[in-house]
Description:
Layout: E1 10-15, H1 19-38, H2 45-50, H3 57-66, E2 79-83, H4 89-96, E3 100-105, H5 108-121, E4 126-129, E5 143-149, H6 159-169, E6 170-181, E7 208-212, E8 228-231, H7 236-245, E9 249-256, E10 268-270, E11 273-275, E12 287-293
Parallel strand pairs: 2-3, 2-5, 3-4, 5-6
Antiparallel strand pairs: 1-7, 6-12, 7-8, 9-12, 10-11
Helix pairs in contact: 1-5, 6-7
Amino acid sequence: MTPTPPDAVTPGIDVVVDPDEALRANRANWDDRADVHAESAMYDLAGFVADPAAVSSVVREDLALLGPHLPGGTVAGLDVVHLQCHIGTDTLSLARLGARVTGVDLSPRSLEVARDLARRCGLEATFVEADAQHAADAVTGEVDVVYTSIGVVTWLPDLTAWAGSIARLLRPGGTFYICDGHPMLYTLDDMRSDVLAVRYRYFPTGEAEMWEDPTTYTGEDRRLAHPRTYEWPHSLAEILEALLGAGLRVTSFGEQRTVPWQAHPLMEPVGQSWAFPEPMRQWVPTTYSITAVKDG
Length: 296
Ligand SMILES: C[S@@+](CC[C@H](N)C(=O)[O-])C[C@H]1O[C@@H](n2cnc3c(N)ncnc32)[C@H](O)[C@@H]1O
């Protein structure tokens, strides 16, 4: 086995951790990442400001899945809460498409970048610092759509609280949408480029996976002051049961073959996304999507 070079990733190990301590570590890590991401080519904030019609590729792909479940097929004119909005590129893309948006995130530095981006773009948006598991306590009023996408539930220990909060945020008839990294993708050993191998846990045990990663996914070499993170593997059944248990009616479920970041060294670029080469593309799903409605 190749020895781990200094400054490399220490792969996730299962640990028992106090959730508050874990969320504090994650907040510090995401604050660090916000500064790196704000200057990254991947998020390209200057390009987003310069082109008033720019909409992130994540939102474009999400709307192809979500649009058919919205009255009129569009977010235009709807009240939308975006959970785990990070530095706001997706939130402000929804605003550019005519939605009244509120972005929620745990990381104050991410929200500062998002507010500054809104100002530079001349877009109306509200950004609220809150834990996504309890967003309904921090956002006033009910909305038509709760949206969350790409790199989200793995950061949340308690999906029952999360789903309950989503149900409270939605007005009757409102729609929840998620597209996220597939839990099966997250089981793969992303340090091996010779084979697709399962290395990490699929099923939830209540334990967290603790990682040490000195860099972030945008490809910059900049070191993070807080490299430790805690994530919680959630199976598809756990995610669906949380939503159903909160009284939401699932109206669609999909599994996809591309993902917006290079989640495994064997992946190749496909447009603005990444995918396994064939025939592996048919072996493992990369993202899943769900729409669910709060019945009136
Ligand atoms: C991968 S980003 C999601 C972003 C979006 N797809 C993007 O690329 O802009 C994950 C975000 O989740 C946020 N986050 C992590 N744990 C959270 C929590 N418990 N509550 C709210 N936000 C959280 C982080 O601060 C980060 O901004």
